Each structure stands twice: as C-alpha cells, then as structure tokens.
TrEMBL record:
Membrane topology annotation: Multi-pass membrane protein
Keywords: Cell membrane, Membrane, Transmembrane, Transmembrane helix
The keyword Metal-binding is assigned to this record: no
Native source species: Phytohabitans maris
Ranges for domain SSD: 179-328
Keyword Endoplasmic reticulum: no
Main location: membrane
Family named by the database record: Belongs to the resistance-nodulation-cell division (RND) (TC 2.A.6) family. MmpL subfamily.
Protein name (Swiss-Prot/TrEMBL): MMPL family transporter
Length: 727
C-alpha cells in the first residue's frame, strides 16, 4: 500500500493543477446537484420492532383521529391565590383559551378541562391536552405562535398559564459553536505548525470535503426519504477527521522537507507512510459509523452511513488533493524559520520526547497510576440509568418546567407522563373495560380514564395515569406490568405514548450496546492486526478504549445524574442519562481513538522495523506523533466543550461526554498507557503467530517495502537517515 500511495502522491504533486481542477469540478457538481436534486427531509422518528411503535402503527390504521405519534402540548391553568377555577370569570377565560386552541393550525384536538376531568379536586389547577396532527419537529413557527397566543386571554384574566410537551420544542438550529470550533482549530494549527500556510491547508481540505459530503447527502434526499438530522453527525465528524488526517500528513511532509528531501519526493514519502495510517484510521471510523445499523433505529443508521461516506471523502482528499496543495505551497509550508518542526530548537528534544522518556523509565508505576485514576472515575458508571429528557429536566425558569411542576402539585407527578393503552379486540368495549379493571389493580396506578372507541368498535384507547414521574423506575415497572397482563385478557393489549416510547428507546439502546461493541471492536481488531501485524497491539488498543469509555460514563453519571460539580458545568437538574448517548459516544470516540492509536503506534512500528530497539522505537515514534495527536485532541476537546455552554441539558451532556472522552483517551490512554505498555512488552508487543503471519497480507503501513525499493533504485538517503539499518 505504501508504494501505491507514494506513487499517487507524487502524481498529485506533479500534476497539481489537474488534481485541483478535478476536485473543484467535483465540488461544483455536487453543489449543483444539491441545489437542484435535493428533496424534502423527514422528521419522523420510528423504532421498528418495539411495542410502542407497533401500537402507533395500529392506531394509524384504525384510529387516525387519535393522533398517535403526533406532538402533544399541555396548557396548564392555575387560579390566583384565594380563588378557584370554578369562579365564572376564571371558567370563561379558560373556555375562551380552549376554543382558540381547537382552531389553531395543525391541532387535531384540544380537551376542555371541565368536560374531560382536567380540573384537580381542589379546583386550583386545570389543564387542556392539545394533540397535533404532526410530530414535534414538523410543527411550524406559526403553530407555536398560535399556541402561545391562545393563552393570552387567560393570562389577562389573572390566571397563571404555563405550557409543556414536545410541541414546544423548537427545531435544532445551527449555533455559533460550529464557527467557534473552526476558529479554535485554526488557532491550534497555527500554534502547532508556526506557519499560516501549513495551518490553512488542513482547514481548506476539510471545508472542501465537508462541502462534497453534505452536498452528497442532500442529493440522496431527492431519491429516498431521509431524516432532517442525518447530516449533523456527518458535519461534526467529517470536519474532525478531515483536519486530523491532513494535519498528520502535513506534519510528516514538513519533516521530510526538513531532513533534506525535495518537494515531490517529500510528498510521496509523507503520503506513503502517514497516508497509509490515514487509510486505516479512516477505515476504523467507517466501521464504527456503519455499525450503527446494528441498533436498528433508522435515524441512527442513516446518520452513521452519511457520516461514514463523508469520512471516505476526507480520506480521498487527504491522499490526492492535499499533495497537490503541498505542491502549490512549496517550502513556504515550513515557515520563516525553516527548522525541523519535530525538535524544539538547538537540538533540544520536544516535550513529547521528554514525556515518552519519563514514561519509559517508569512504565509500571505510570501504568498503574493511569489505570487506577480511570478506574476510580469509572465507579459512578455502575449507577448508570438511561432515559430521554422530558419537561421535568428543563431549566426551572422555563414554561415547560413550570407547567410540569404545576401538574405535579395539582394532580401528582404521573400526570406528566400518561400511558396510552391500546386494546385490539372484536368487542373492544368489553375488552377495554376488563383491561381497565386489571390495570387499576396494579401498583402505582393513580387513575384509569374511561375507554374511547374507534368507529368500527374493534379498537379502544385507555389513558393510564401513573403515580410516579415519567422518568422514574416505578413508571418503567408499571409499563412492564401492564404489558405482562396481555395474554390474560380477552383482547390484545399494548402500551404506547411518549413515556412508553422513551422507555422502549432506552431499552433498545441499552440492549444494543453490547452487540454494537462486539461488531465494532471485532472488525477493528482484525483491521488493526493487519496494520500492526500483531495480536497484542490491537488487544491493548481495544482494552484502552473500553477503559476510557467506562471512565467517561462514570464522569457523566457523576455530573448529570448525581449532580457532582453541577454548578460548575451549569447543570440545573439531574436526570437519567440520555439513552442515545452511550451508543453515539462509543461510535464517535472509537473512531477518533483509533485515529490516535494508528497515528502514534504506526510511527513506533516504523522505527522498530527500521532497526530501532523496542524502547527507542517507542520514544522516537511518540516524539514524532505526539505533537499531531495533541493538536488534534485539543481541537476536538475545545469544539465539543463549547456545547457545554448550551442551555439545553441534552446538548450540554453530549458536549461534556465527548470532550471528556477524548481527554481521557488521547492524553491518558494513548499518550500515557500506550507507551508504558509498549515499553513493558518490548519485542513481545509485535508478536504474531507464524501461521497467522502467513495468512495476513502485508499492507506495509510503515513503508518498509517502499524503503527497500527506493534503496535498491539507488536513491540516496538524507544524512539523518543514513545510519538507520535496513532490515
């Protein structure tokens, strides 16, 4: 592979104008296609195979007027102190508000509190349940404005009016954090390279790659239904890996120039060695993203495949367009000082080399300290509970949280998470009455609303009010208990609604985590065995990744579920961890972690294959790669940490988790545990059974075959490399 990439890079460098024109033509073609062929994206969210989704599908066929799966809102009214909602003026104000709600855009139904039992026994709190004909992400701004406007007459009459429900959630919008991330990346690149030209190339190639990738996703949306959030992961990861890959190749190119090679040869050597690592690093990311299909949630599958395609584009650009741009930059990429970027100046070792020497002098102590530290941080992960955010986790000053609290005070916490029980039977009325009696006898049931039948009389709806909050373990147990009554009654019974859907999604994500890990880790293990021709190195890489992940889970639980350091990170309410977070975290961090693993250890293997002793190879390889990995990790940590400033607890937890995960994996696992373990293992780190050595193809990531061919061709080595033996 190294030989092929060497030739490809030299061709790109030599024919740089042609390569640049071709890539710009591709960008223009994809951009034009995105403008002319893109279609409408979907905002539907389905979880195939779950009971709640099956119930929604059944209601869509037999009881469409029920609005199952549509967004909901609850408008909560509270009487002024010393008054009740039975007072004629208060009642008139509420009825006027309900009348406005019923005719609001996209509203399917709105209940009258006085007719539907929506007034608490004390007469101080009431609510109207508003059901929309579309899902929350499809609600227009005009519909949200109409919802707010409907409450104004009641507010003017002196009532307290608050609103909750998923209908109030605004669509996800691009924030300043993306721009902030690019600015931070630019600053880190300038500091790393000391050259504006060298810093600009990774950003330029990343922007071109993202433009092609996102345009491709938009084109596909014109031919197949695609979720509106599909491009989010592609944008985030595409930018991350594109900068990483370009940064790694540019760093190696600068080194080749500094030791005396000419531009074309330096580009060939850089891509032949560092580019091989980029190919396999990209493959690990693609594996991690494509394997999201294992979870069997269409939205995650689409996001994973879209992001994987963008990563492929980033790899292709790094191998072809980047060498062409290096040809345009020439020696200006080194900067004015023109010195070897991998030394601190005057022959002094870099900080990376000094750290590697410290670790290799005390490998056992450093390894024990690092593992112990991550192990202690991981302890809270034993209490991990998964769930989806609701109004109870909103900030205390929001109308959603105020509505949630008013309902809890007036009716009990279960009113914030009603369960919809679907009864399917030829005589739905009798079966529903039987089911209502059985459910009423279960623990933690506050109330069962009388059944509502469809026109055919073969489907009935029961609304069950739990006694506990929607995100509580008691409500999860109640859903399980209701479902267990199915089979003992005269009709088929299933539970759906937002609360049940949240529980099903959490269960699906929790049960999919182990199979997903098995697929990702298994395929990546085989790939890394090919790259390093070793059994021990892939095993160590995998175990290190798992250690950083469980430590991240521990930190997330401690902050967002237990409330430790909550004030420091702006966490106003503790809650179960978002159910999508573990799988997303594993997929994203695994890809980036293997990037860092490949970047560091391939250079160690290169030094070892070229004749260095095992410990010297660790120090030399780490010294070459540490600067790049440090820069890449700082960029990613800074970008993700920016999301901690968000007011949304969901976005805040994702940003915190990703930033902490990369901090642990890059600096503790890859840059501390890896050199310590490699030192302790010595030559054993590169052990491979002979039978497996014969089976595995030699992909020559470290460029040893390339080096042999160049030596045989009579190309002189720079003075800095003449002493290195050829093995």
């Amino acid at each position: 592979m190294a030989t092929y990439l060497y030739r490809l890079a030299r061709f790109s460098y030599r024919r740089r104008r042609l390569v640049l024109v071709l890539w710009l033509a591709v960008l223009a073609a994809f951009g034009t296609g995105a403008l002319t062929l893109s279609g409408q994206t979907s905002t539907s969210f389905t979880v195939p195979g779950t009971e709640s989704q099956q119930a929604i599908d059944l209601l869509g066929e037999r009881f469409p007027q029920a609005g199952a799966g549509g967004a909901t809102a609850r408008v909560v009214f509270a009487a002024p102190a010393g008054e009740t909602l039975a007072d004629p003026a208060n009642r008139a104000a509420i009825e006027q508000a309900v009348a406005a709600l019923k005719v609001a855009p996209q509203v399917g139904a709105a209940t009258d509190p006085y007719q539907a039992g929506g007034v608490n026994p004390a007469g101080t709190v009431a609510y109207s349940q508003v059901t929309y004909t579309v899902q929350g992400m499809d609600i227009t701004d005009a519909s949200r404005d109409a919802l707010s406007a409907a409450a104004e007459p009641a507010r003017s009459a002196g009532l307290t009016v608050e609103m909750g429900g998923d209908a109030l959630q605004p669509p996800v919008e691009t924030s300043a954090t993306e721009v902030l991330g690019i600015v931070i990346a630019a600053l880190v690149l300038v500091i790393t390279f000391g050259s504006l030209v060298a810093a600009g190339l990774p950003l330029l190639t990343a922007i071109i790659g993202i433009g092609i990738g996102i345009s491709g996703i938009m084109i596909v949306s014109g031919f197949t239904e695609m979720a509106s959030t599909t491009s989010i992961l592609a944008l985030m990861l595409g930018l991350a890996v594109a900068i990483d890959y370009a940064l790694f190749i540019v760093s190696r190119y600068r080194h080749e120039l500094a030791i005396g090679r000419e531009g074309e040869e330096a580009a060939g050597r850089a891509v032949g060695t560092a580019g091989s690592a980029v190919v396999f690093a990209g493959l690990t990311v693609v594996i991690a993203l494509a394997a999201l299909a294992v979870v069997n949630i269409p939205l995650l599958t689409e996001m994973g495949l879209a992001a994987a395609s963008t990563v492929v584009v980033a790899v292709l650009i790094a191998l072809t367009l980047l060498p062409a741009l290096l040809g345009f930059a020439g020696r200006r990429i080194i900067g004015r000082r023109g010195r070897d970027p991998e030394t601190a100046g005057n022959g002094k070792p870099t900080a990376g080399t000094r750290w590697a020497r410290f670790v290799t002098r005390r490998p056992a102590a450093v390894l024990a300290a690092a593992v112990l530290a991550l192990g202690v941080i991981a302890i809270p992960a034993l209490s991990l509970r998964l769930g989806l955010p609701d109004d109870g986790t909103a900030a205390p000053d929001t109308t959603q949280r105020k509505a949630y609290d008013l309902l809890s005070q007036g009716f009990g916490p279960g009113f914030n998470g009603p369960l919809t029980v679907v009864v399917d039977a030829p005589d739905a009325k009798g079966a529903a009455e039987e089911a209502a009696g059985a459910i009423q006898a279960l623990p933690d049931v506050a109330a069962v609303v009388p059944p509502v039948l469809n026109q055919a009389g073969d489907t009935a709806l029961l609304t069950v009010i739990p006694g506990s909050a929607p995100s509580s373990a008691a409500t999860e147990d109640l859903v399980t208990a209701i479902r267990e009554t199915d089979g003992r009654l005269s009709g088929d019974l299933s539970v759906t609604g937002q609360t049940a859907m949240n529980i099903d999604v959490s269960d699906r994500m929790g049960s999919a985590l182990v199979p997903y890990l098995a697929v990702v880790v298994g395929l990546a293990f085989v790939l890394l065995a090919l790259v390093f021709r070793s059994i021990v190195v892939p095993l160590k890489a995998t175990l290190g990744f798992l250690l950083s992940v469980v430590a991240t889970f521990g930190a997330v639980v401690a902050v967002f579920q237990w409330g430790w350091l909550a004030g420091l990170f702006g966490v106003e309410e503790t809650a179960p961890i978002m159910s999508l977070l573990p799988v997303l975290l594993v997929g994203i961090v695994f890809g980036l972690a293997m990037d860092y693993q490949v970047f560091l250890v391939t250079r160690m293997r290169e030094e070892y294959v070229h004749g260095a002793r095992p410990t010297d190879a660790v120090v030399a390889g780490f010294g070459h790669g540490a600067r790049v990995v440090t820069a890449a990790a700082i960029i990613m940590i800074s970008v993700f940490a920016g999301f901690i400033l968000s007011h949304e607890s969901l976005i805040k937890s994702i940003g915190f988790a990703l930033a902490v995960a990369i901090l642990f994996d890059a600096f503790v696992v890859r840059m501390t545990i890896v050199p310590a373990v490699m030192t302790l293992l010595g030559r054993s780190a590169w052990w491979l059974p002979r039978w497996l050595d014969r089976i595995l193809p030699n992909v020559d990531v470290e460029g040893e075959k390339l080096r042999h061919r160049l030596v045989e061709a009579g190309e002189p080595l720079p003075a800095a490399q003449e002493a290195a033996p050829v093995r």
